[in-house]
Amino acid sequence: MTEANDRSRWRQTTRLMLIAVAIWCVMAFVLPVLGPAALSGTLLGFPASYLLTAHGAIVVFIVLAVWFSHRQDAIDRDFGAAEDDF
Amino acid sequence: MPHPASEYARLNRTLGLRTALLGGAFALYLVLLAVLERIGVPDTVIGYLVIVAVTAVFLGIGIASRTLLASEFFAAGRSVPAVFNGMAAAADWISGAVLIGLVGTLYAAGHDGLAYVVGLSGGFVLIAILIAPYLRKHGAYTLPDFFAARFGGPLTRWLGLVILICCSLGLLAAQIHAAGLIGELILGIDFEIAVAASLVVIVVSTLLGGMRAVTWTQCAQYGVLLAAILVPAIVLSLRHHGIPVPQLAYGQTLQAIAEIEATLPTSDFDAPAYLAPFSAMTPLNVFALIACLAAGAASLPHILMRFGTTPSVREARASANWALVFVAAVLLTVPAYAAFAKLEIYIQVVGMSVDALPDWVFAFGDYGRISICGAPADLVATVKEACSGTTASDILGPADIDIDRDAILFALPKMAGLPYIVTGLIAAGALAAVFSTATGLLLAIAGSLAHDAYYKTLDRRASTSRRLFVARLFVLAVAIGAAWLALERTADVLKAATFAFSLAAAGNFPALVLGIWWKRCTHYGAAAGMAAGLGVTLYYGFMTTWRDMPDWFGVDPAAAGLFGLPVGFAVIIVVSLLTPAPAPTLGTRLDRIRTPRGATIADTESVVEQRSEPAGERRSTA
Question: pTM surpassing 0.80?
């Protein structure tokens, strides 16, 4: 493991973190605050903004967390920084 | 030393089997009690049978997990698989106060209550992305210990300890208070006796086994609390909509609520419409709440310490994801539960005359939980007298009815005419939520006092047995202190809990995030930012609540972290840039924190410091 290798791994890790946090902010802040004004009509019997806040945010959080973990594991493996498998 | 794959798979299988057996036994026991109820066993006996049995199982797991090793007491031997650690973290997070308060808030605020759902779930994504893997790699037993190691000085350790006590002690008191409420409402025993009894359970499950015992009891407690919220919701979903998926079916319940609200005369209707956005909270407050809850989850010491118990960095990240899934299962169901309760009130109470009110109204009125026309609804005559001369004398409107929102969780089975065993199950679930969070909090406070205040400051040569003895003394002392605080009855338990999350977020979150992600962050910067964040939040909460200071931009005092968080970040950045860059050794340590590969840092450093510890101490660090 060289220093350049380490720096490059941390750059990729930081970029992944920023992307994930940005997506998180959209679901956690933009949707609940601006959603009700922008969305109307019903979905699956729910008011659309209610469904997207109550169910949509949680589902996106779970998908985001799983995707993030896969990407981070791949970065760690590619740069030889992952733990030995057990 | 990594776990061999086969041993780890076997551990997972054994734990899975035990979970299935315990779950099956619990289900059978509930069926047996339902039969007993059918043949005429009185309600109170059923209530005791559920609660005593469940509590005995919790105590049994706690006693069976006793330990004499420091690594087991503080970090469960770093051997808890991701799924089970996630389950325990979810139980840590869904506290009794949150469960009781969330149902009540969603019942009262409808659409706006969803801010709690988003904030309470969102925090675990931040934990997985920003914090858990790095805390696990460092492996500190306490959060103040992590601050001291990362920033290289005692100042952040002491501030971390102050923040920990500020946020955790209030939260612990709120939990014990919730236990008193459950004893009073369900078992009909005195508040003080219920507080004392729950204190014994909490102390016994923490004292002997520390983190190891707390982890395994929390897994069982999560199961009970999920069952408690799911069973009534599924039964009512089947009854109203014919499908057993309340999370998707309750859209029709919401429509029914909206239709009833549309028929009510508008003059009667000063309660906010259930589905109208921003009728109970301003958009700014929705934003503030979500920020404080999510950052609070990612800053509360008892939650973060969970992620030191996994075998590896990758497992720590995975267990944050599992925690999110387990929390989501509860948070997707609670809004359905609240909507079912709202509809029952609209059908059975609103639009009725006083004579036609169902019996359960007076049962809860007797406990002072329901008022009608401003008078406690204990007898038909009282209500009639209070309502006479108003428009409510013939037909009750929503504004005439005042239900204590903290009682909604327990009231729904009675409203819907479900068997008493369901009420017993809900009480057991709420108690499980209380115990799981209270034990986690108690361990975090006592562990930190023993580790940071005693071992790292007063007596750095203390032997393991002495450290554990001190930790257990602190468990006792903190529990008694919290119970004493709990006897001062707080008004709104969810508000009290949210303020504790605000304190944790404003004090810890900026220092954690910048400490891990910004190398230039200095010791003085972090200390100044922690003090400023905590100070601003405390100031706003205190001045608006007790000194009649006008609020800033209408922000709820419970969400005071909205001001503390940016102040904390800004102060850390400015002071860090004004003070000399951190020593190169701290930079090297941060590089190791950021790299998953390699030994757990705190464990290897304690080997150098502590040559006298038994060899068994240092096993199984992946």
Answer: yes
